[in-house]
Amino acid sequence: MKRVLVLGCTGSIGTNALNIIKYMPQDFTLCGVQAHSNKDRLKEIADGAKCPSLLTCEDNSEEAFQKLIDQSKPDIVVNGISGAAGLLPSKVVLSNGIDIALANKETIVMAGPLIKNLAQDNGAKILPVDSEHSAIFNLIQSIGNDNVSKIIITASGGPFRTLSKAELEQVTIEQALNHPTWQMGKKITVDSATLANKGLEVIEASQLFDVGADKIEVVVHPQSLVHSFVRTNDGMLYAQISEPDMKHPILSALTWPNNQANYLEPFDIFDKTMTFFKPRMQDFPMLSYAFECVKFGKAYPIAFNAANEVAVNAFLEEKISFQAISRIVRSVLDKNWNHKVKNFKDVFAADEEARKYAVELI
Question: What pLDDT, on a 0 to 100 scale, did the predictor assign at position 180?
Answer without folding.
Answer: 74
